[in-house]
Amino acid sequence: MYHELLTDMYEFSMANGYFQTLPHNKQARFDVFYRNVPDHGSFVVSAGLMQALDEIKHWHFTADDIAYLRSLKHFSADFLDYLEHTKNQCTVKAIPEGTPVMPQEPILSISGPLMEVQLLETLVLNIINHQSLIATKAWQITNAADGRAVMEFGARRAQGPDAATYGARAAIIGGCSSTSNVLAAKLFHVPAVGTMAHAWIESFPDELTAFRAWAKIYPDTAALLVDTYDVVNSGVPNAIKVFKELRAAGHEPVGIRIDSGDITQLAKKARKMLDDAGFPNAKITASNALDAHIVKALLEDGAPLDNFGIGERLITSSSSPVLSGVYKMSELENNGKWEPKIKISNSREKITLPGNKQVYRLYKKDEPSKAFADVIALNDEQIGDTISAVNADVYATHDKVELKDFVAKPLLSEILTPDHEKDIETDTFAIQKFAHQKVAELPTATKRLVNPDRYPVFLTKNLADLQQKLISEYRNI
After folding, report:
1. What domain range is 338 assigned to?
2. Element (H, E) at 250
3. Chain CA centroid to CA 30, Å
4. What is the C-alpha separation between 340 and 464, in angstroms, rounded?
5. Is 154 helix (H, G, I), strand (E, B) or coil?
6. d(Cα 295, Cα 314) in Å, to the nearest integer?
7. What residues does the Nicotinate/nicotinamide phosphoribosyltransferase domain cover (predicted)?
């Protein structure tokens, strides 16, 4: 199922107006970017490109769609006839999924007939905003977990089936090892995991009987939930009894999960009990409304935890639930020539960057795996050995710099035209690996969970001058 009608009504109203007043083949370019990083971080892990491309390349309206639009009695008949017979005519440039991106940098740049590019706005933002938000939250949590596995457990708390399913994929891109969402596991070829709920324990006469029944069914993957009644006095002792029975039958247990209480103290006591009983390799998993700050605090307190199952605060990014990405026109074609466009505001940070652009990540010449800054340039600019640049941070005290001794790598590439589609990476764990590599290239200080340094982003002088020129022109109109 595709989502052509998942579009705000005003997009159709504008498209209908364009059809009536402007040439039907008038071209436009729009950029997708964001202004503020969730949770006061310094970057966003981009995600959602695979689904966005799939939607764009299959973009069309069915007879049923057209019938519904006609029933609204709001659009001209010739506009609806146009929609009924058109297919994707747009070109997409994009930064690869998994790339850490900074404020103002175009994640996607979409060009094509103005009517069609306009109609894609809501759908593309819906996909990119949500999945990039969840991938970023997953990176924060897995970074706090310091190499311990984080399982995505959020389906029941997500805002709907699509958010649960594509959110799980984004969580894997951000660093999670697996998901409890079986549909997401099937669609995106990732491990499906899970143990049991408290209802399993409550369905038997007592906890020990429940554990034994589970171990009989799943002798080689026995992970037992030990907090239904009393972790220390009941759960762990009963788990140890069952673990000994499993071992005697030739099976090794997986471990236990703690889902409530003072997890640090309970995990310490459980670890000692397991070790003393001869199960030093039995893992302890923690769950129950965890987030990056709680995970970090647990580990700093010495909680002997091996895994984390994280649900609502990951899949909803509850501490910062919106990535306010925007979709802004940057160029418009007039009489066969592209003209840069700008949106002006009294707030400097809301003034857009005009023109067709490229983003370069700069690496140190003597340390080619260490990125130290990004530069947003006009697409046709030649990047030399030295760049005269302006700080993109509107609050920067030193706004002009000379950048040198770098290797510049472009981030945006053309991946879809009306006639051709470039292969992109779709394997979720391959994207996760790429994301890990790209985040590792960033300065350590930009990756702090609390009060990270802002990663430097600059504009070339040509782009900054063009922006200022358009600001002056439009303010004098």
Report:
1. 9-134+321-475
2. none
3. 20
4. 13
5. coil
6. 12
7. 150-349
Q: Which of 274, 298, 315 represents a domain boundary (last residue)?
A: 315
Provide the CB-side half-sphere exposure for 78 (13 A, CA): 6
Residue with tokens 């941070």, as numbered in its chain? 393
307 strand-pairing partners: 149, 285
> What's the domain count of the chain?
2
Q: Please give the span between the terminal C-alpha atoms of the chain, in angstroms, as a whole number.
A: 46
- Residue 357, beta-bridge partner list: 378
- Among residues 264, 286, 315, which one ends one of the domains? 315
At 354, which CATH number?
A: 3.20.140.10
10 Å CB burial of residue 63 (0-12, 13-18, 19+) is: exposed
Q: CA 379, CA 359: separation in Å to the nearest integer? A: 9
At residue 382, the 3 state secondary structure works out as coil
| CA gap 229, 260 in Å, rounded | 10
Taking residue 28's Cβ as centre, other Cβ atoms within 10 Å add up to 22
Whole-prediction pTM: 0.96
Q: Is residue 243 part of a domain?
A: yes
417, with CB counted inside 10 A (0-12, 13-18, 19+), is: middle
305-326 pLDDT tens trace: 999 999 999 999 999 999 989 9
Residues 256 and 352 in one domain: no
| Collapsed DSSP state (helix, strand, coil) of residue 100 | strand
Q: What is the pLDDT of residue 2?
A: 82
State the Cα–Cα distance between residues 130 and 46, nearest whole angstrom: 10
Q: How far apart are CA 191 and CA 103, in angstroms?
A: 33
Per-residue pLDDT band at 394 (split at 50, 70, 90): confident
The DSSP code for 236 is: H
State the pLDDT at residue 348.
81
Distance CA 413, CA 66 (A): 34
d(CA 85, CA 68): 16
Verify that 282 and 354 share a domain, yes or no. no
